[in-house]
Amino acid sequence: MQPTHSESETIETFKPTRAGGFRRAVLRGLGVVLPPLLTIAVLIWAWSTIESYVLGPIESSIRSAIVKGVSHSKTFSQVPKGATATGARRLDGFSYKGERYVPDPTGRRFLPEYVVKVVNENADRFGPYTAAPASANAFWHRYVEVVYMPRSIVVPVFLIVFLTILYFVGRLFTFGLGHWFVRSFDAAILRIPIVNKVYGSVKQVTDFAFSEREIEFNRVVAIEYPRQGIWSRGFVTGNSMKEISLATGEPMLSVLMPTSPMPMTGFTVTVKRSEAIDLDLTIDEAIQFVVSCGVVVPPQQRYDVPVVLRSASVIKPNSITQERK
Description:
Elements: H1 5-71, E1 84-85, E2 94-96, E3 99-103, E4 110-112, H2 113-121, H3 136-147, H4 151-172, H5 176-189, H6 195-210, E5 219-224, E6 231-239, H7 242-248, E7 252-258, E8 266-272, E9 277-278, H8 283-291, H9 307-324
Antiparallel strand pairs: 1-2, 2-3, 3-4, 5-6, 5-9, 6-7, 7-8
Helix pairs in contact: 1-3, 2-3
């Protein structure tokens, strides 16, 4: 039995609807999953960068200093005088001052047996893919890391010291001579070709993200700009100049118009207070709207186009035609 014309139209109508529903569901799923995943990825990247370029070198330097101090008098390349041989062979080790010494994997140096024992017992702490120590110095580094510098102590101490240094650096370079030094350093870097492009862009982003706003925004408004019928949102920074208000006979506002997707750049316009519409938006919500190029709309500002408006847009031309007749 062949489907009728109306039935075939119904089948064809449902196909794109199901496909569109599946696509919308996938996009909504991505919208839910991507923000936390990207946030976690950025935090992991930031920590990995700090660990690789700050924590790692500092930890390695401190560990090397401790190893030199601890292993200096307890590592031998030859059997010392007064030592008692453990076996007939040299590689059997010896006892010296009440401690037993064993050869390292190379067989050329001797170190205390307890060092090798501690490292072997904690081999799982370094991961399954970490190679075993191949020398006496490597054993001492592992031993110091296990006994003196475990990660459970190193990381908290590093974070406390790092935040303390950031605090004092921030206090030092905010006012007076420190502020002048930072400005001079920025000016010098910005004179270097190629480097100034990268440094300038990075500094704009970091200043916007981490610095306190020097401009105090009062509220978010919408104005018709750059022409009537086109609405742009901006931040009110205060009342404008007195001469402009006297010339127009009406209070004027200074409005900062941020540009997408980098809200740290923009321009300032002066508009009449009566021509500015206050928006139910916080500063952070407005910034998110700008950064997302209008994609992220706060919940209180979302709406569906009413059916009345759609029908009016369709009926209006017909009504005009009838009036002309």
